[in-house]
Request: fold
Amino acid sequence: MTTARRRWIGVALVVLALVLAGLSTLTFLRAEETRERLDGQRRKVAELLAEADGVKETDQVRHDELAGEAARYSGFAAADEEEYGSRHTAAVLLGAGASASLAGCLILLLPAVRGSRRQRV
Reply:
């Protein structure tokens, strides 16, 4: 492989690494937003269940309403937990792709840089 071709491939790998790193960062941010929403839903479930336990003996209808609402929020939390997991995994994989692309670039470009230094000396 010629030196010029190695350089072009190396530059392409650097650009790919930057794009993948940017996508990874955005995906991590979205995953954290999902995690915050998930934490809020879990808090809401805990509050509703605590309130339902408080009115269990005095107002059975209100208890059933609160328990139903807690179950609904629990379903939302389960969906958000799955979404968080998939986003986090995607972000990690994008970050790994960026690292691999950067490593490939270094493997291609270091011999070319060393060769050009030897030619100058």
